[in-house]
Structure formats: structure tokens, C-alpha cells
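Escalation from tier 1.

The customer reports that the assembly of two entities below gives different C-alpha cells on two consecutive runs. Tier 1 could not reproduce it. I'm attaching the input and our single run for tier 2 to review.
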Amino acid sequence: MDSRLPPDLRDGVRDTLPLLLGIVPFALVAGVAGVEAGLTPLQTVGLSVVVFAGASQLAAIDLLGRDAALVTVVLTVVVINLRMVMYSASIAPYFRRLSARVRAGCAYVLTDQAYALALARYTSDRDRDSDTRRPYYYLGVALTLWIVWQAGTVVGVVFGAAVPDDWRLGFAVPLVFLALLVPAVSDAPSLAAAVVAAVVATVGAGLPFNAGLIAGALVGVVAGVGADRVGVGRDGGDGGGGGDPDPAEGHR
Amino acid sequence: MTTTYGPLSIWAVIVAGGVATFAIRLSFIHLFGRIDEVPPWIQRALVYVPAAVFAALVAPDFAPAAATIEAVVRPEVVGGLAAVLAAWYTEDVLWTVGAGMAGLHLARFLL
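Tier 1 run:
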């Protein structure tokens, strides 16, 4: 590592390395699944570059492979990535002194992990007094993830094209969704959200425009909020407020 | 299951999804100083988005086509169950996908 780089940048890169164990297989699946679903290598890599959000990319690939309505595909991508509104709001104060162009660049590489690591650093004692610091640490994390994500996608595309269909590598897509779903179901309201969403999506599986998926997601969220309101499975109660979602969700 | 969409449609999805995702990421970073807070009701709803969306995405893949033993015990279902168990114990993408693929192929070999 070049010692002329800002130390914060190097810290960011170093702190990201342990996370790559979870990111690399995810990126490989994003590449493999793209070509399995009939996207060209360029389209698959383009998806990784342009969208750069793993769970939503897999959902888009999955739905395109099933010839879902294009509107449904885009809508699903948006719904999955809505969580980033919270990250954007939470990290915004630390970027406020930057130029509009640099802020836009920082926004483009905002991910679950970059948010989680950068916020932990910026709110730690060391950095408490300087919320105006240049975003080197954040960029060290975010750019490392970006490079590894693109490289992993490319390797996945090459690998996916070379492997015989009988290996059924496309099955990795629902498996990744399960890997994201299980940690997301952490309490009674989130279980209610998942069960209701699953039932509605399955019952509505034959609807045009894949409306069952959208309806399932919406009704599921309503069920989760409702269960939370009623206080299902809660003994103390935290007075609402939502709490932070697990930042590791959705990308691990 | 390969797509029948042409390149124009696929690129349209990629660009639209990318622009929308970038807008989400930029939202409060850009607006800071004018709007600083996500309304609490939105925060509460967002907590349950992952559980609902991922469940809605996978459920039809594993739902049995009929109420018979053959329809329920399919290689995909065996693989899915193996993956859920692995996800539960490891919370790790690599182990989950590995267990699921192993379960699928083992079941294809045996069933």
C-alpha cells in the first residue's frame, strides 16, 4: 500500500478486508445469475456498475429471467433499495462540507457496509469533534467494495458461461435471498411481515405484472408495522421509533 | 428460465433501476440542511421491508404445485431447507448457498 495515501483511506481499506469473505460469493452469484437468466455479459456487468446494490440486482435478474413486467422489475429494485434513505439521512451531516460533485460520488458508492463502518468510525470518540473531516475513510471502504464487487461480477460471468446447465447454478439466486431473509427475521413483527408476504406472494403468483410480488411486499410491511404497533412478542416495548435496521442486512 | 426481453428493454431496466437507486442514495445527502430527518412512520415501515420483500421473492419458488407428497418433496425444497438451516446457524452467504446447492444435488441424486 502506498504510504502517500491518506491514512484514513488506508484504514478504510484495511477494515473492509474481513467483509470481503461475504461480498465475494455474493458478487460471483450476481455474475453467474445474470448470464444464467439470459443477460449478456455486458448487461450483467452493467447492472453491477449502474445499480451497485447486490440484493436488488439479484431480484432484477430473477424477475427478468421470468419475463416479469419491466415496471415490476424496476419497482422491486426501488423497494429493496429504499433502506438506503436511512443511511443517506444518517451519514449526510458528515458530508455537508464537501462539494456537490464529491457528495454525489459518495452517494453513488453508498452501501450497507460502507455506511455501517463509516458511521461507527465517525461517531467514535476519536472523531467526535470533527464532523467535517474529509471522507477518506468512507471512500477507502466504499471504493474497495466497489472494485471487489465489479471484479467478482466479471469472474462470475466468465464462470457462469463456462459451467454446464446441469449444475443448476441459477438456484443460487433464491438461496441468496434465503441468506438475506433468515437474519432479517429477528423478532415477532418481522416474522409476521415475512409470513404474510410469503402467503400473499404465493397466492398471487399468477397475477399479471407479477402483482403478487409487489402486493406481498406491501402487505407484509403493513403486517410488520401492525404487529409492532400491537406489541406482538414484546414484553418491554421500546416505544416505537423503529430502531435501526441491521446495517449488515441486504448485502452480507 | 432465460429472459425473452431484447437488449433495449434490459438496458432500460438497468438505467431506470440505477437512476432510482442513485436518487435514493443521494436523497438526504443532497438535501441536508433543508430536510434532516426521515419521518418516523417511514423509518418504522423500512424496518420490515427486507423481511417482507425477500419472503415475497422466494416463497413462490418453493411453494408446492399441489398438495401431494411428490409436489412437496422436490429437490428445490430440500435445497431450500438446507439453506435455511445453514443461514440460521451461520448467517453467512457462502455457507447458505453451499448448503443449498449441496441439498439440491443430493436430493436430485436420491429422489
